[in-house]
């Protein structure tokens, strides 16, 4: 057995402690170096690469299916700690006053089976798309529909063209703000008012026990029995209260320009929330508000009242014009939506794909004739 005097024992203990300290330091250094090198390797691709380069796949030099086109739609949504919590208690109206008899008569005259009403809204500046939409309905054998006009000019234009039975001015009591008659560019303040007014109209119709089949006028209907097909999709699953066209391709955002909606309490609440967001967040479009309202609903695929229409049979402009997916897969779509396009590009794209049915000369002649009538009336009054 070894024996150490007191100084030797102190020296031995000190050596052991120093050895342990050096070993611990070495291990920490190795772990830190490994973590840092791994971190550096993982951060070679910028975090915003997809957002900054959304349109082209570098490997194939073709348009990418990733789309950041609708990011603006969600601007203005207020962040909350609980994403499913509403900002404040939501008031859902119990009822509304009935519309004027003339409006109610036109609604009843245009109801299809099961109280389904094909609805569009527009102002005078969109009249060329309105007539193109009407012609697409004629070609698909839909003869019952109603266009709610935001201004008297469009209403008088439709009456002069022979479509008075399918046109109605929006009752003043339905509007939260005045709507301009001119064509408005996407995302302008007036554009947001026009799109927001669509929700006000649909809300009123739900309280009349109408199943609303809403369609923007820049949509071309392509196949007969479209209405029956979509209504059957709704009927075969009682839990389904609304079927939406998709925005983009990722099945996360709905397009508020094409949908069929039942007059249920759940849908009345959805529209009340959408309108609340529109009225309180002026920077939000109607579509952004509706998607934000959907965030507060049950979206479980097994139980949700919200269903998405197939993006190949009901393509938006990104799917149809940018990627040509229906044609590439041999699918004949039910509709084509010319969104993702603005101004004259919208009409030109439809023309390029033989989807512009309107005779532009006919429209110009009608415009001139109505303008002359208006001028002569002013002259007679003076």
Automatic annotation (TrEMBL):
Residues 143-349 form the Nucleotide-diphospho-sugar transferase domain. InterPro entries: Nucl-diP-sugar_transferase, UDP-D-xylose:L-fucose_XylT. One of its GO terms (molecular function) is glycosyltransferase activity. The chain crosses the membrane at residues 12-31. Keywords: Membrane, Transmembrane, Transmembrane helix. GO terms for cellular component: Golgi apparatus. Signal peptide: none annotated. This is Nucleotide-diphospho-sugar transferase domain-containing protein. It comes from Apophysomyces ossiformis.
């Amino acid at each position: 057995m070894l024996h150490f005097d007191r100084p030797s024992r102190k020296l031995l203990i000190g050596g052991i402690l120093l050895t342990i300290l050096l070993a611990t330091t070495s291990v920490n250094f190795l772990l830190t170096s490994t973590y840092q090198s791994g971190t550096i390797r993982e951060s070679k691709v910028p975090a915003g690469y997809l957002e900054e380069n959304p349109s082209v796949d570098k490997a194939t030099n073709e348009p990418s299916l990733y789309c950041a086109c609708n990011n603006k739609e969600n601007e203005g949504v207020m962040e909350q700690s609980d994403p499913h919590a509403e900002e404040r208690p939501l008031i859902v109206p119990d009822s509304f006053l009935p519309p004027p008899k003339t409006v109610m008569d036109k609604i009843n005259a245009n109801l299809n089976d099961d109280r389904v009403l094909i609805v569009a809204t527009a102002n005078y500046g969109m009249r060329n798309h309105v007539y193109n939409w009407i012609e697409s309905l004629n070609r698909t054998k839909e003869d019952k529909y109603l266009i709610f006009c935001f201004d008297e000019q469009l209403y008088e234009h439709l009456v002069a063209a022979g479509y008075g039975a399918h046109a109605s001015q929006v009752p003043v009591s339905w509007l939260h703000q005045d709507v301009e008659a001119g064509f408005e560019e996407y995302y302008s303040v007036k554009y947001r008012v026009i799109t927001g007014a669509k929700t006000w109209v649909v809300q009123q119709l739900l309280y009349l026990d109408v199943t609303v089949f809403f369609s923007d006028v820049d949509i071309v209907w392509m196949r007969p029995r479209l209405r029956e097909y979509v209504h059957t999709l709704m009927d075969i699953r009682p839990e389904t209260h609304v079927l939406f066209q998709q925005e983009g391709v990722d099945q996360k955002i709905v397009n508020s320009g094409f949908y069929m909606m039942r007059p249920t309490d759940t849908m009345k609440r959805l529209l009340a929330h959408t309108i609340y967001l529109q009225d309180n967040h002026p920077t939000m479009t109607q579509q952004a508000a509706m998607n934000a309202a959907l965030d507060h609903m049950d979206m479980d695929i097994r139980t949700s009242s919200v269903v998405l229409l197939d993006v190949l049979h009901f393509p938006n402009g990104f799917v149809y014009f940018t990627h040509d997916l229906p044609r590439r897969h041999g699918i004949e779509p039910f509709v084509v939506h010319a969104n993702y396009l603005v101004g004259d590009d919208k009409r030109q794209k439809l023309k390029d794909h033989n989807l512009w049915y309107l005779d532009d000369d006919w429209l110009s002649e009608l415009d001139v004739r109505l303008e002359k009538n208006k001028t002569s009336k002013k002259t007679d009054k003076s």
